[in-house]
Amino acid sequence: MRFPVSTSILLLTQARANSWVGAFSSPLGSFAHPPSAFIHRNNKHKNISSKSTGRTFATADNLKATVSPDDIELDTSAIKTAANASRPITTTSTKVSSFANLSFVDTAELSAKKQHRVLFILGGPGAGKGTQSEKIVDSYKCIHLSVGELLREERKRGDASPHAELIESCLVAGKIVPVEISLNLLKNAMDEACVKSGDSKSYGSPIFLVDGFPRNFDNLAGWTKEMPDYAAVIGSLVYDCPIDVLEKRIMGRAETSGRSDDNLESARKRFKTFQEHTMPVVYALEEVERLETEEDGIGRLHIQHVFGEGTIEEVWDITKDSMDGFVRNDVLTANSLLMQAIGDKNVEVYSQLCSDEYLKGDGDTSVDDLFKHYEMIDDFNSSEICNAKVEVQDGTKAVVTYDRTAKDADGKLVAEYRESRIWSHEERGWACVHFLRKPLSEP
Fold first, then answer.
1. Which domain holds residue 427?
2. 175, exposed or middle or buried, with CB in 10 Å at 0-12, 13-18, 19+?
3. 361/303 same-domain check
4. Does an H or E element contain 17, and which?
C-alpha cells in the first residue's frame, strides 16, 4: 500500500517535520505555565501580569501611565464601558480548549455554524495596513476587505448611491462615515466573497481582514449589535507608526494613488482622528482580551501591536508571527478533533478531517481499512498525549508534533511514539495530508 501523499508534499514536509520531531523533546514539566497557541510579541501598553500565562496587560485604569506625552488624554471610564459592552464580539461559538500542554481557541463550532473569522486591521493613514494585508492574503489566503476602499468604491457610484455625497464629504474632511453605511458595505462584501470562493482555489474557513474598522466607539457598538451572529472577531493587528513617517509615505503615495485624501492636510486630520477616536477602541479591545485571559487563561480575542516604522519585510516578520498565532487555533482545533475521532474509532469524522489524497489508498482499499492501517497501530485501550508543538509553514501548511503513550486495558505500557501530523488549508478547511510516526521506546 502506498503512502497517501504526493511526492511534492512529502519532500516539502518530511525534512522539516523530522527536524521538528528532534527538537520537540522537552518534557511537559519544563513549562512553568501552559503555553498559549499565540505568539505575543512587540505588544505595547502592557504592565499588569496574568498569573495563568505570564503575559502582562494594561488596564483601563492605568492607560495614562502607559502612553507617551504626545498621546491624547484618555477617558478611561469610556474605555471600560466600551470594553464591557463589546465582549460579545468574540461570540459564543469560540471557547478556550487545550491539546496536551497547548491552550488554544477552539473554533470547531464557528466552522459548524459557518460564522466568519474576522481580524480588525488598524493603524494611522500610511501605516502599512494595505501593504501588509496584501502580503497576508498572499501567504495565508485570507480575504482582505478595506472599509476605506469599499467606501471609495461606493462614492464612485455617484448618483447611483444614496450615500456617495456623504461619503465624499467625510473622507475629504477626515471624518468617520456613519457606522450603518460601513457595516452594510462590509456585509455585502463578505457575502459576495463567499459566493466567489466556490472555485478550485478557495480555502474553507478563511479569515477576513477588515481594514480600517472599527474607527470609534460608535463603530464598535454598531458591530457588537449587528455582527456577532454573523462573524466572530478573533483579534486585531494594530500598526503603530509616528506621524512624520506617515506623512512621508502619504506624500509619496499621492504621486500615483489619485486619492483625494492623499494630501498633508487630510492626512493630519485623519491621524488626529485615529489618535482621538480609534486608539481608545484599541485600548477597549485590549481590555476585553485582559478580562478573557483572567477568566480562561488566554483571550479568545488577541490584540497585536506591530511597529510599522521599519521596512516592509521587517514589519512583515512581526505580522507573520502574529498571523501564525491566529492560524494555530484552527490547526489545533482540527488536530484535536482528529485525535478524538481516532480515540472513538469514528471513521466518518476522521475522513472529514483528512484530505481526499490522504485517503486514496490503492484502488479498492476502503476508508475503514485505511483507518485501521494508519491508526490502529497496537492493541491498546487508551493513549495519552504530551509535549505538543505546532508550527505553521507558509500560511497554508502546518505540522503538529506530540508524544503519544499507548496503554492496554490494565494500564500497562504498550508503546511510546512521537507523531507528526501534516496539515494543509484546503477548500473545506484544514485537512490532514500526511503523518510521521517514530517509536520512542520499547515496553
1. 7-30+345-441
2. middle
3. no
4. helix 7-23
